[in-house]
Specification:
- By secondary structure, this protein is of the alpha/beta class.
- The protein has two domains: 11-39 and 298-430, Aspartate Aminotransferase, domain 1 (Alpha-Beta Complex), CATH 3.90.1150.60; 58-288, Type I PLP-dependent aspartate aminotransferase-like (Major domain) (Aspartate Aminotransferase, domain 2), CATH 3.40.640.10.
- It contains eleven helices and twelve strands.
- It has helices spanning 11-23, 25-48, 67-80, 94-105, 124-127, 169-175, 199-212, 264-274, 290-320, 345-357, 414-430; strands spanning 84-88, 111-114, 155-158, 182-186, 217-221, 240-244, 258-262, 324-326, 338-341, 379-382, 395-399, 405-409.
- Strands 1-7-6-5-4-2-3 form a seven-stranded mixed sheet. The chain has a five-stranded antiparallel sheet with strand order 8-9-12-11-10, covered by helices on one side.
- The longest helix has 31 residues, at 290-320.
- The protein is globular, with a radius of gyration of 21 Å.
- It starts with 10 loop residues before the first helix and ends in a 6-residue tail after the last helix.
């Protein structure tokens, strides 16, 4: 029986996929068990906050007394284990949500200590770091001013990761001192090969930070990590975290947006930065977006589980072809990202182009590397998504530089996500570079 009647899949790849499924069956079952737990948690948040159809109504103008907006904040807070949350469609990206949080709680003269090495590319301009890693007034136009944290007098320091890519607890302890206002962690690996952080590791760093720098704020970039484990960073000592709704917590339905969650007093400060001091979260119309944000939140645990299964299968499949992958299929996961080291530029491009062929949108498009704003080299992105840039939908992207690794993530459901990985292998086979 032909299992793939609508696609050209070489029998060799089909057989490798069968072996990958058999090999990874235990890991897939563990993901399903976590998904079951997180979906129950989300359902309980909806029920206990009495979500009703009236919460989907649109508001305009100032958005006073928008019951849907207020209830959505409470649902997110409960599902994420936070005291409070700020969930808005007008966060334009995860970086925007992080920026609002940083400017919301940091003041001139404060010190921000990043303990997970260099943050993600798009945060460099927010901090005020140049392409060479030095602090400048503007990350992309040195000598000009763009309103970075540096321009506002916020000091930045960072602690490098160990050679194994893990937080260096000894170096962190040495860098911590009373008066440091923020200890910042990036949970996901970004465009690096270092392991992503588990909430237990974040908890260990948070305990150390609060002990060595009393009164500091432990903040986490939680992008790609929501609903991967049973708890979130704020349940393990983090004070504040932020992320994007076109990643895990939007469930593939939210068309845009982001969230900030954590301690109630800190979330309130962030709300004053998002709108105006004195008004904060009391204003901001929802323009009919509530229904999609509620529905996305409800779907988020399930969709995150499907993305995780797609990642595990991709790892198992490409290990069959002799490629180094991180994480390996059998390893526990702290986010949805799967990295495949493809050894050369040609294989990297073929992988991404094959992934695009498995997309429901723009499958006929051939992605090519290009100079993308916020990055220091050409980037190739495969993303045939219903929502532009939604990396909870199946996507693969990479900067065109050594070690020629593709960062794959997402998959609204495992059935098509698995097929996308197989088509990536088929594209490489067609180019006669699979396994080379």
């Amino acid at each position: 029986m032909n299992l793939y009647p609508y696609f050209h899949i070489d029998p060799m790849i089909e057989q490798a996929a069968d072996r990958a499924m058999a090999e990874a069956s235990g890991a897939l079952a563990r993901i399903d068990a976590n998904t079951d737990y997180n979906q129950q948690k989300m359902l309980a948040a909806f029920i206990e906050n009495r979500v009703s159809e009236s919460h989907f109504a649109a508001s305009t103008g100032y958005g006073y007394d928008d019951r849907g907006r207020e209830t959505l904040d409470r649902v997110f807070a409960q599902a994420l284990g936070a005291e409070d949350a700020l969930v808005r469609h007008n966060f334009v990206s995860g970086t925007h949500a992080l920026t609002v949080a940083l400017f919301g709680v940091l003041r001139p003269g404060d010190t921000m200590l990043c303990v997970t090495g260099t943050p993600y590319d798009t945060l460099q301009g927010v901090i005020g770091r140049g392409k060479d890693g030095t602090l400048t007034d503007d990350a992309f136009n040195p000598g000009e001013y763009c309103g970075s944290l540096k321009e506002f007098g916020v000091h930045y320091r960072q602690v490098e990761l160990t050679p194994a890519g893990k937080p260096d607890l000894a170096a962190i302890e040495a860098a911590l001192q009373p008066g440091i206002r923020m200890v910042y962690l990036q949970r996901s690996r970004g465009y690096s090969l270092r392991p992503s952080l588990f909430v237990e590791e974040i908890g260990e760093i948070a305990e150390l930070a609060h002990r060595k720098a009393p009164g500091c704020i432990v903040m986490v970039d939680n992008c790609y990590g929501e609903f991967v484990q049973r708890d979130e960073p704020v349940s393990h000592g983090a004070d504040l975290m932020a992320g994007s709704l076109i990643k895990n917590p939007g469930g593939g339905i939210a068309p845009t947006g982001g969230y900030i969650a954590g301690r109630k007093d800190l979330v309130e400060q962030c709300a004053y930065r998002l709108t105006t001091p004195g008004l904060g979260r009391e204003v901001g119309c929802t323009l009919g977006n509530n229904r999609e944000l509620f529905m996305g939140a409800f779907q988020a645990p399930h969709v995150t589980g499907e993305a995780l299964k797609t990642a595990v299968f991709t790892a198992a499949l490409f290990q069959q072809f002799g490629y180094e992958v991180t994480p390996r299929w059998e390893e526990p996961r702290a986010d949805i990202i799967q990295t495949v080291l493809l050894r050369n530029k040609e294989a990297l491009i073929a992988f991404c182009q094959g992934m695009q062929k498995g997309a429901p949108v723009d499958s006929f498009v051939t992605p090519e590397p290009w100079d993308m704003p916020g990055y220091d080299c050409p980037v190739i992105m495969a993303a045939g998504a219903f929502t532009l840039g939604a990396s909870i939908e199946l996507s693969a992207d990479a900067p065109l530089r050594a070690p020629w690794a593709a960062w794959m993530q997402g998959g609204l459901h495992f059935h098509s996500g698995r097929l996308g990985a197989m088509l990536a292998a088929q594209s490489m086979l067609d180019c006669k570079i699979l396994g080379k």
